[in-house]
Amino acid sequence: MSWKKPTAGIILAAGMSTRLGKSKQLLHLKGKCLLERVLDACLGSELDKTFLVLGHQHQTIVQTLDQQLRHPNIEVVINSNYREGQSQSLRAGLLAASNAYASVMFLLGDQPIVDSEMIDFLLNRFWNSRKDICIPVNRGKRRNPVIFSSNWYDRLLEIKGDIGARQIIAANVQHVLAVDVENSMYFHDIDTEEDYKRLLNYITNK
Q1: Which of 55, 83, 140, 179 is the most buried (most CB within 10 A)?
Q2: Contact, 145 vs 189, CB < 8 A?
Q3: What is the C-alpha R_g of the chain?
Q4: Tell me, what DSSP letter sits at residue 48?
Q5: How far is 151 from 102, CA to CA, in rounded Å?
Q6: What is the per-residue burial (b if ≥16 Cβ within 10 Å, else e) of 137-160?
Q7: pLDDT band, very low/low/confident/very high, at 38 (cuts 50, 70, 90)
Q8: Cα 84 from chain centroid (whole Å)
Q9: Is the model's pLDDT at 11 over the cut of 80?
């Protein structure tokens, strides 16, 4: 529905990769770093603009991705409070995007299998529904990326800690469009070396 457009993408990629012990944003996956793949997916989709929220080691990441980050549809947002949890990245991205966009899609910077096709599938289901929150569901579990209309911006800005928007979704199921997605690899993120190896193997043999 037109009242939900335009839609911005907000990539949450400010974390410290504590469990992995190195910056996962720059891990290489078949010729591209992890974050580069997420950016490519956003740029190839129907999202109107993409806000990349960085924090830990942001200078190194910006230097590494310099060419791609010059794209006119990408804006880098620095979250200096990244140690306070994911809610601060969500807040930083939303503050940068909210005035100009009727809805936002929050994407995780460590889910590189989410592609343009997947993003557009969720966007179109969301745009054509009467609901103003949209989540993918795989094997009965809520996943990411998640879409919110501007009706929820004030509530999202109140979130604290490292919980993201889970509580808002759980408390407002009547507003949620749940979209079934069969391929669980879309939602495979990287927290450990084992996660990285599994993803590398999947992409190599794809």
Answers
A1: 55
A2: no
A3: 16
A4: S
A5: 9
A6: ebeeeebbbbbbbbebbeebeebe
A7: very high
A8: 18
A9: yes
What sign for the dihedral angle of Cα 111, 181, 120, 127?
negative
Compute the distance between CA of residue 97 and CA of residue 68 in angstroms, rounded to an integer: 20
Residues 189, 192, 198, CA angle at the centre, nearest 5°?
Answer: 65
Is pLDDT of 19 > 60?
no
| CATH number at 2-204 | 3.90.550.10
Tens-place pLDDT, residues 88-105:
999 999 999 978 999 999
| Alpha-helix residue ranges (DSSP H) falling in 44-192 | 58-64, 86-97, 116-127, 153-157, 166-171
- Cα 176 to chain centroid, rounded: 18
Residue the block writes with tokens 């054509």: 128
Query: Residue 132 — pLDDT band, cuts 50, 70, 90?
Result: very high
Cα dihedral: 173, 179, 185, 187 (round 10): -30
d(CA 183, CA 204): 17
